[in-house]
Design goal:
By secondary structure, the protein is α/β, with parallel strands linked by helices. The strands form four sheets. Strands 2-3-1-4-5-6 form a six-stranded parallel sheet, with helices on both faces. Helix 9 links the parallel strand 9 and strand 10.
Length: 716
């Protein structure tokens, strides 16, 4: 099974792009099909091109990373309380990126002051993608103990250090030259004492930690050495002599402020020498060193003083050796500050450095861990709310069904229809006065689109009188009665469904449940071999989707009916990509209690098992035993469902409806439904307090049910 691994940075400046490059490269070297996705772009100051990680890893012809979302787009959604929309779109791109691959590597957001939601959003993205997490950290100026504590605190947001979702951490930039503020300073390399001893403590501490270290990556000044052209672009320098501007690299810096005899020891290969432009003695001395075979990185002149013509003529032979000479207008002090702000990230066009970084990082990542990633994970996969909503819309798009909306003049319904049209979820028919509908749409700034049709009931009611009389002739219905009943748009929509003109019906934004369900029961009927109609709610918890049934239809089902509800609900779960583990809920677990209510649940459980031995069903179970592993271990240790249930069947409507509303409101979560089960063709009821999104997803559910009903009819 394909796996998604998310790299989550713990702190700023941990070398996240380099680690991403290394892991992707390590996976490829092991023959693992891998793709990469950075959901949200985070350009560094001065970045004007494509997102760096995506562009660099995308240079590999075997890897096709999706484009990240722009920071401005993300900020607008987050400020507008539309994180769910963002997560669905991320899931969509991630799913497409995972197609045909074994591993998808996700690069998380780096925490910054501008994007203070980054840590929270990392958690949401990991949950939405059901991703396994690898933390990326750098010791910085922290002590070893502080470093370990930071990782353990970060783990708490993802279920704690013992969570199956946390694979481990990668410690990057070990022994890096750090100043007193924790900033990496390549110019300080070799001048700091005690750094190695401090970093050795990291090895020792993590050796006793429950967090597995998947890679210790030492500081390597060679792979961060920029080209001279990179520095020239950063400083906006004038090129006095190009030389090997594009190939020479800079590994250290010296400021030439002393006399020549006191500076010549600093005239070394790959070094940037900085001096005022009027220091002709320095210029000539550097050129002499170059003529003697010293491959100096570059000479940077300050204060805007361009070397005089005689000096330049004297140095022609030295410049021919490839020595780059640059000039900036700033003084030496300001130039030193500008040099410290240089971005040491890998440029997109520096292919040699990209290769070196990939090789170096990959060589320091645990090879046994990399090879183990192709093995099937023992962790139970969970369908997140964002993934579930995305799955709904994708399945609905594929179904391509037409849904009738009897409450066509209701503003929420009109907006939902417009969204469904825009996202190709379903074709929607709005029943209502065309002028009123178009006016409401205009007032909301909506474009109804080609996927929305408007039918004026006044113009078509008469067409359904004769078919309705025929359907209900056993009840003695007449033309007059039929026409009168057809004044109700739900009845009209039900007739359209019964005659196969539409594939499903959604109502309830202004009608009661009874008014929504009664006409379809009379006209559409129940499915063959079905004894009752029931309902389920999809409860979208933060990290998984649960199914509750029956919370809307049957007040006090018998044991036989309860067994039927369990079977219907399990089949619905399977249809929507949830592997059902059905808990028959009661106030007692196993044989610990007695009474008629418990006996009903026990009997229903046995009946369901007999009818469908292929399903995983157990009961009676108390709710806590059904969901909590520690409670399940003591109350129902041998249950195949306890502690891991995802489908909950309540013993009666009172219990089910109360529980669903208590969970929904107390946990402030989204629920989708009720979705009706057992109808010959799909009909779904809305809450009268339904939001636009609720209607959209109910339409999607109905479209999917329409496809399933069509397949069942074909098979029959």
């Amino acid at each position: 099974m394909a796996r998604t691994i998310m790299l989550v940075p713990v702190g700023f400046g941990v070398g996240l792009t380099s680690v991403s490059m290394g892991i992707v490269h390590a996976l490829e070297r092991h023959g693992i099909k891998v793709n990469f996705f950075k959901p949200i772009a985070q350009p560094s100051n001065g970045d004007t091109g494509p997102e760096r990680s995506t562009a660099i890893i995308g240079l590999n012809p075997n890897i096709k990373p999706p484009q990240p979302f722009a920071p401005s787009y993300v900020a607008n959604l987050m400020s507008g309380n539309k994180a769910d929309t963002l997560l669905e779109e991320i899931v969509e791109r991630a799913n497409k990126a995972l197609e045909g691959n074994d591993i998808l590597v996700i690069e998380g957001m780096v925490p910054t002051r501008k994007q203070q939601y980054s840590s929270r959003l990392n958690n949401k993205i990991a949950t939405a993608l059901d991703a396994e997490v690898v933390f990326v950290t750098s010791p910085g100026a922290d002590s070893a103990i502080q470093q370990k504590e930071r990782i353990e605190i970060a783990c708490q947001s993802f279920g704690g250090t013992s969570s199956e979702r946390i694979l481990g951490c990668i410690v990057n930039q070990i022994n890096a030259p750090i100043d007193e503020h924790g900033v990496i300073r390549p110019d300080l390399a070799g001048s700091l004492s005690g750094t190695h001893q401090k970093q050795m403590e990291v090895f020792q501490l993590f050796g006793r930690s429950p967090i597995r270290v998947l890679g210790y990556v030492p500081w390597n000044e060679k792979i961060i050495a920029p080209r001279v052209i990179d520095l020239a672009n950063h400083l906006k320098a004038k090129v006095i002599n190009e030389g090997q501007l594009h190939s020479r690299r800079l590994r250290s810096i010296s400021f030439c402020a002393r006399s020549i005899p006191n500076m010549v020891d600093n005239f070394n290969a790959d070094k940037l020498l900085v001096a005022s432009g009027d220091r002709s003695d320095v210029i000539v001395s550097v050129c002499l060193a170059a003529m003697n075979g010293v491959k100096i990185g570059a000479l940077l002149l300050t204060n805007g003083y361009e070397p005089e013509e005689p000096v330049m003529k004297l140095c022609e032979q030295a410049m021919a050796t490839g020595l780059p000479i640059l000039l900036v207008e700033t003084n030496t002090w300001q130039t030193s500050i500008d040099l410290q702000s240089f971005n040491h990230e890998v440029p997109i066009d520096d292919t040699k450095r990209i290769y070196n970084v990939q090789e170096f990082m990959a060589s320091h990542i645990d090879k046994h861990w990399i090879s183990s990633l192709t093995q099937v994970s023992s962790r139970e996969r969970r369908l997140s709310p964002a993934a579930f909503r995305y799955k709904l819309t994708e399945m609905a798009r594929t179904a391509g069904k037409t849904i009738v909306l009897p409450e066509g003049e209701e503003p929420r319904t009109i907006k939902a229809a417009a969204i469904c049209s825009m996202r190709n979820i379903a074709n929607c028919i709005l029943l209502g006065n065309p002028e009123a509908i178009e006016l409401t749409a205009k007032q909301q700034g909506l474009e109804l689109g080609p996927g929305v049709s408007i039918i004026d009931p006044e113009q078509v009611r008469q067409l359904y009188v004769a078919p309705m009389v025929k359907l209900r002739e056993h009840k003695g219905i007449t033309d007059i009665i039929a026409l009168e009943q057809l004044q109700d748009n739900v009845v009209l929509g039900s007739m359209m469904l019964a005659l196969g003109e539409v594939d499903g019906l959604v109502s309830g934004a202004v009608h009661t449940t009874a008014n929504t369900i009664r006409p379809p029961l009379q006209l559409v009927k129940t499915a063959p071999n079905t004894s009752l109609v029931s309902s389920i709610f999809f409860m979208l918890l933060p990290d998984q989707v649960l199914i509750y049934g029956d919370c809307a239809i049957n007040p006090d089902p018998t044991a036989e009916q309860l067994a039927e509800i369990a079977i219907q609900s399990a089949d619905s779960a399977t249809a929507f990509g949830i592997q059902p583990k059905v808990a028959m809920i009661s106030y007692s677990t196993g044989t610990s209690g007695s009474g008629s209510d418990v006996e009903k649940v026990r009997e229903a459980t046995e009946l369901a098992k007999q009818k469908r031995p292929d399903l995983v069903i157990d009961g009676p179970l108390q709710y806590d035993a059904a969901v909590m592993k520690n409670v399940a271990a003591s109350k129902a240790p041998n249950s195949p469902v306890a502690g891991q249930a995802n489908v909950f069947i309540f013993p009666d409507l009172n219990t089910g409806n109360t529980t669903y509303k208590a969970v929904q409101r107390s946990a402030d979560l989204i629920s989708i439904g009720p979705m009706l089960q057992g109808m010959k063709k799909p009909v779904n009821d809305l809450s009268r307090g339904a939001l636009v999104d609720d209607i959209v997803y109910t339409i999607a559910l109905t479209a999917i049910q329409g496809q399933q009903a069509e397949e069942n009819e074909y098979n029959d």
